[in-house]
Amino acid sequence: MRTLLISFSLASLTVIAQPKPPVTIKPAAAPMTPAKKIPFDKAAVGEYVKNIEMWPKDLELKIGDPKPSAYLPGFQEFSVAAIYQGREVLQRLYYLAPDGKRFIQGNVFMMDKHPFQRNIDHLKTDLMPSFGTPGAPVTIVIFSDFECPYCREEAKTLRDKLPKEFANDVRVYYKEFPLTSIHPWSMKSAVAGRCVFRANPEAFWDYHDWIFDKQPEITPENVDSKILEWAGTKGLDTLQLTRCMETSATEPEVRKNMEEGFALGVDRTPTLFLNGRPIEGSTWDQLKARIEFELGYQKTAKNAGEKCCEVTIPGAVK
């Protein structure tokens, strides 16, 4: 801003003006062109997605607002969540083309990053039960259900085989994903597991192994009493555990893990993420081969971020 200093002399009424500073004329800024809004009819998209997925016509869907995609420039991404009995049970991610008429579903790969970087970015492992070597080159995050028979077999394999064959190479994180629509005591056991973890993190894996081992004997009617009976043999504070279970104090933690799973496309258990790569059930030989492949990849990869040979899951113990 130019300042003009004028001095008035009352005696002589002489006006003295200070020299004016040079004026720089800047060219007018080009007017901002608002981003073109992509047409998006949520109702029409919902009906179309139901047709793709073969979902019932009366299934409630929650469709997110499109937002610019960080993984596919020029496209916008939106989520479609399926709601069953008032709760989200499944989520899909779609990418919307600029014309608003076409959208795609699937993985987007960026050659300067790890192939499953998006999954890695979304997996949170802080305050999650874990075993294995901290900072291992391979991280497995498992979404599991204590009432699921397939999870029982997977759990036995992981607990037995991994420490023997990959003692220094793998770290495993456990996340609850109870399938409450088909497993009536799965939520109770998941909540109890988080209660045990709160009270004594080291006791969680004793609980994990015990409840999978006793799975055939547990029913909706005896699940509480059996868990408390087990806790008494481990020296845990059964009064505190009872209070935690009765108030479902840890259910929000379980729900948070479920929501994370939905966002990653988990719709069955067990689902594993091996350095972000989704794996839905596998034999030990298949899983072993994938771990060995990933170990080899980490030694030579040039696209896993700034550190070429390390994949970091946010919050993972170092």
Let me know the largest β-sheet.
5 strands, antiparallel
Tally of helical segments: 9
What percentage of residues falls in helices of 4 or more residues?
25-40%
Strand content: 15-25%
SSE string, helices as H and strands as E: EEHEEEEEHEEHEHHHHHEEH
Straight-line N-to-C gap: 56 Å
Outline the low-pLDDT stretches. 1-20, 303-318
Structural class: alpha+beta
Give the integer mean of the pLDDT values.
Answer: 84
Secondary structure tally: strands = 12
Shape field:
globular
Rg (CA only): 29 Å
In short:
The chain is of the alpha+beta class. The chain is built from nine helices and twelve strands.
Which properties best describe this structure?
alpha+beta; disordered N terminus; 318 residues; globular; five-stranded antiparallel beta sheet
Please describe what this structure looks like.
- The protein has 318 residues and is of the alpha+beta class.
- Helix content is 34%, strand content 18%.
- It contains 9 helices and 12 strands.
- It has helices spanning 42-53, 117-122, 149-165, 186-199, 204-213, 223-233, 238-246, 251-263, 284-300; strands spanning 6-8, 15-17, 60-63, 67-68, 76-84, 87-96, 103-104, 130-132, 138-144, 170-176, 271-274, 277-279.
- Strands 3, 4, 5, 6 and 7 form a 5-stranded antiparallel sheet that branches. It has a 5-stranded mixed sheet with strand order 8-10-9-11-12. The protein has a two-stranded antiparallel ribbon with strand order 1-2.
- Strand 11 (271-274) and strand 12 form a beta hairpin.
- Helix 4 packs antiparallel against helix 5 and helix 4 (186-199) crosses helix 7.
- The chain is globular and about 65 Å long.
- It starts with 5 loop residues before the first strand and ends in an 18-residue tail after the last helix.
